[in-house]
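Re: Re: token formats

Sure, here are both.
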Amino acid sequence: MHSGLLSTQQVQCPYCWEMIEIVVDESAVEQDYIEDCSVCCRPIHFRIHLDEQGQMEIEALHEEEF
């Protein structure tokens, strides 16, 4: 789904391993935030950035990884 500069992305929770959907602001080159998993409610640390080709890279990390 694309709505302006927002898109939805599928990522895997680093705790319960379920695929969840997050909304990403494509206008920001670098993003670093925490959002709870919609399945297990554990805090996921998201690091999102655009690579040299403009492709979005999303890291979903658990507490011990940041």
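Second one below.
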Amino acid sequence: MSITSALNSAMTGLTAAGRSTSVVSENLSNVLTPGYSRRSLALTSAGDGFSGVKVGHVQRINDPALQSSVRSANSEVGVAEVKSAFFGRMTELVGSADDPYSITQRLTDFDSGLIEVISRPDSGPRLNDLAIQAEELVRSIADAAEGLRNQRTAADRAIDVQVDKVNQSLEKLQKLNAKIAISQSTGSDSASLLDQRDLLIDEVNKIIPVKVVNRDRGQVALFSEGGAVLLDGQAAELSFDGKADTLPYMTLGNGLLSGLQINGIDVATGPGGPIRGGTLAAQFEVRDVLTVEAQEDLDAMAKDLIERFQDPALDPTLTATDPGIFTDQGAFFDPANTVGIANRIELNDKIAMQGQAETWRLRDGLNAASPGNAGDATLLRGYADALDAKRTVSSVGLGTANLDASTLSANLLSRFAQSENSAEQNVAFAAATYTEMYQRELAQGVDSDAELQNLIVIEKVYQANARMISVVDELMETLLRI
């Protein structure tokens, strides 16, 4: 080896060691940075008759297939969490089996109040207590329905927020694509830009699962799992018209709730639609399916309760269009207007303690002209029998069956408890899958111990090349003295 080639080898070795040190330092400084991909320096022999080492580009270490699996698992976690949160809240609203404020317990308290007043129909305090228990029962149903409406409104707002977030992320991705293309065209290091782009893709993917397709000059295109074009050169624009409030009768079908548009074209938001699989589709499912079914279940119970006590055959003082103990905002309940009755159910003002408080009417008839025989419990026993009577009840969640009032309320609680339990299991499974995939991805990330070992090796390489230069210098001085 000539002195010139030895010097050249040592100089390129020092350059490679210095650049490698910079890469290792960057890895170590970003060991806790989310979305950071470990870097490595590409080193090759100079070749073509030249001695030494050739320093190549900085490479990002990542596995596209594993990255795709992590994103898929993450979107599944998001969907499971949205549904679990919904059913968890519904269980809180209707109550659990051991909840003293549940709908079932309120119905039991009302039934117990009937038994007590039947034994002493002349007792004003017991009649008052029965009216209070009836009011608490009504309030428990109405509060659950209002809580459900709030959940539906929250889902509508979540859709609005997520649509805005996707639009903003797609615009940023379009700009990053352009920057990456320029960077790679000029031979600049684009690793940091690629990290930023991956983080933005992760954000979009949780809302709308995407497929990433590589394009020229380092750019990418994004397509939803359902085939919608989200980014391909130009970013797509999603449109949604959120509502300040939602009411039970408002649906996507009747046009009172907004659907989703991509570039001005309506797209389906159901399980098989273009945006399927992410939290955006999950929020649409909550708003348009889960809350609608839950509303139908609550309406079925409210309807059943009202009709049990609205029958003129039970209370002879009622006409065919007079409201019973439980009313539709104080009026007669028309079965043709069932949607939202759980929100509108009220205790008859004549017997309500906050109303006229004429609780003797529970014993003598709601439209009785005056108090009757204080010892006559006939109507009260009829109320108790009405609660125990089996009636046909039908809804999506509860099915169709002949049930008494107590069994109906128990089925309502059980329906949401089972749904919550199933949703929690789905969350646990999805989270476990995501954790496993994420741990595998982390294993490809920065290992501080390994990087420190690399740093020691680089230091030795630096010392060896520095020593080579020192030897060459000594040789040159010797030659010059000769």
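The chain is about 55% helix and 10% strand. The mean pLDDT is 91.
- S.
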